[in-house]
């Protein structure tokens, strides 16, 4: 391999690393261990995998790169990327690859520098914080859900070992009445 081609390939690998290190979805997956104890190693491997994917496949389309990145995130980090960032990341990597292939190495270095500054300014954090009002609403909803799930007369049981021919047939149930509740639920009760 001649020197300019090697430099372009190394620069592309560095560019992929810069793009992936500033991708919030991947940062969150690594920071929170979605890939297990080896999340950081998987992120490092992903840089090489993306770089190899480009060099082993000619004329990649953006949608192919999106699919590849989505598969890696799903398989390695158990993460489905649905924040809309996948097309942006794949487009950015495709553009950087094209620039490296065209010999526009100084432009690629400039973009890597910009991405590195973006990385330094702040990392995405996944720290869900609930406001006190949200916590109260959630606990009330859980209590209401538990109340709605309780069944009336749940203590009556029939033996499953009794043959069906010996069981008394159930009396026909009286028609039910429907009463709308204030919270939008319809309660169905037996008429007596």
From TrEMBL:
Q: Region labeled Disordered — which residues?
A: 116-192
Q: Where is the composition biased (Acidic residues)?
A: 134-150
Read off the InterPro entries from this record. Answer: Pre-rRNA_process_TSR2 (IPR019398)
Q: Which residues form a coiled coil?
A: none
Q: Which UniProt keywords apply?
A: rRNA processing
Q: Single Gene Ontology BP term? A: rRNA processing
Q: Which PANTHER family match?
A: PRE-RRNA-PROCESSING PROTEIN TSR2 HOMOLOG
Q: Which family does it belong to?
A: Belongs to the TSR2 family.
Q: What does this protein do?
A: May be involved in 20S pre-rRNA processing.
Q: What's the protein here called?
A: Pre-rRNA-processing protein TSR2 homolog
Q: Which organism is it from?
A: Aldrovandia affinis
Lineage, uppermost ranks: Eukaryota, Metazoa, Chordata, Craniata, Vertebrata
């Amino acid at each position: 391999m001649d020197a300019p081609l090697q430099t372009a390939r190394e620069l592309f690998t560095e560019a992929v690393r810069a793009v992936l290190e500033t991708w919030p979805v991947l940062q969150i997956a690594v920071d929170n261990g979605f890939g297990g104890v080896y999340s950081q190693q998987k992120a490092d491997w992903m840089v090489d995998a993306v770089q190899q994917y480009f060099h082993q496949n000619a004329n990649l389309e953006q949608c192919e790169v999106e699919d590849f990145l989505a598969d890696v995130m799903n398989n390695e980090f158990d993460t489905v990327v649905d924040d809309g960032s996948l097309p942006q990341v794949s487009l950015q990597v495709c553009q950087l690859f094209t620039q490296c292939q065209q010999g526009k190495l100084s432009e690629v270095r400039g973009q890597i520098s910009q991405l590195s500054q973006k990385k330094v300014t702040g990392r995405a954090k996944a720290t869900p914080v609930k406001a006190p009002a949200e916590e109260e609403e959630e606990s009330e909803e859980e209590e209401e859900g538990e109340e709605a799930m309780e069944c009336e007369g749940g203590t009556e049981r029939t033996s499953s070992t009794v043959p069906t021919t010996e069981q008394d047939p159930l009396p026909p149930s009286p028609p039910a009445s429907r009463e709308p509740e204030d919270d939008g639920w319809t309660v169905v009760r037996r008429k007596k």
